[in-house]
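Pipeline run #58 for the internal structure catalog. This entry was flagged by the ingest filter as a single-chain record with no existing model, so it goes straight to prediction. Upstream metadata was stripped on purpose; only the residue string is passed forward. Reviewer on rotation: M.T. Logging verbosity set to normal.
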Amino acid sequence: MQPNLHPINDQLPSPKGVALAVLALSKREDVTLGEIALAIQTDPSLSSRLIKLANSASQSSRPVVSVQEAVARKGVKSVCQLALGFSLIDQYRDGGCTAFDYPKYWSHSLLMALSMQALATRVRVGESSELFICGLLAQIGQLALATLYPQHYSDVLTAYQANPTQSLTALEATHLETDHIELGSTMLADWGVPGVFTQPMALYEGPNHSDNIHDSRTNSLIMMLRLAHWLADLALCDADQRPQLTQVWLTQAAKLDISTEDAANLIDDVISEWHDWGTLLQIHTEPLPSFAEFALENESTAKNTSSLRIVVADSNEFTRRKTIAMLAEDGNHAVYAVNDGHAAMAMVLKVMPHVIIAHCNLKQMDGLALCQTLRQTGEGQGVYILLMDDQKNVEHSIRAYESGADGYVSSTINAITLRTRLVAAQRMAQMKLDSDKDRAHMRQLSADLDLANRQLASDEFRNAQPSSP
């Protein structure tokens, strides 16, 4: 039985107490900073959190010591949204949705908030407090569904956890006629979060939209939200998954010109802040190694040159299992199985594979369309794509290669032929890794040269000055 699909607003997660009063004040055109500060001061917990955030995000050497200063520095809009976020944390620490992990949800959201705040100092597309709240509320639609439909959403999450290769939003839409992205976007708009932030928040979980979005700020925010989400995943994942997620994170960070050294500092700072804020907000955090230890784990994993991340996309269960079995015999590959084209796209964004083995007759999006779509994205251009077909012939082969495939084989492929194909894929993956290292090295050389030139110019200027009598 379907739930009530038209909930009234007071059933949705919403701020209460002082946060609600602050939001009401902010809607007055004649409201003053003093009135906002006075309302916040009645809540010591909110006051301390706001002051801490103002200081942690401030570039000023003089610390903020009062609520009035914090409000003045952050502005009324940012303060209202921060009050809203902190209020939601306090009110929705648990609930009736048994399959929804409330502590993990808030721990992940806090990590995203702190990651966005840290990225704000490196990618100048928004004020740090605005990006903090973007990260904190990026997944608010999931909390809303868990609050509105606890039993039905528990069933959705149970189905998703049994098969994570499915699309969560598709499951939500099927069972609830809405999804967490759509509902979250509506809530954020109602709360006054500007559209410049809500649009990237609605897009970052889906396929790459860079070809359709010509606003560089929106594209940067989408990439930042993805990085923040992946960093939260990295911090909360099992230890054996860290090397893979670390490499994915570093590869994507380089697209925002964040070097490995800068990434190391960013990750360590975020994790340190996560522990501090976890204590302040009473949110559970995990002890984690430093980035240097992450890098050692990643290097150790990389030494196994036969290891590849491979997505197998096949709607036929028999051939899908056969392919997975051959890959298991061939080496220590990380294999991710999906049964339709849309799930394949989602998995590519999630794990950044080296190889995709896709059947031409995929459901939802066939193999040729999947290949063409991937080749139009930054994530898909460097992936080795092997298309399989039950009816292998010259005409189909031409279409496969025109779609951007690196290989075209029969679905009856044997283990030896598949292993030969993976040698080519391994060579491509190594070339990409070497290319990334070369680009990082060139960026470092350019930075060093720029620094040396500025120092030389400074020395010449000082030498040219007349000596004092």
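catalog note: The chain has three domains: 11-91, 93-298, 309-426.
catalog note: The beta strands are 309-313, 334-338, 355-359, 384-389, 407-410.
status: ready for reviewer M.T.
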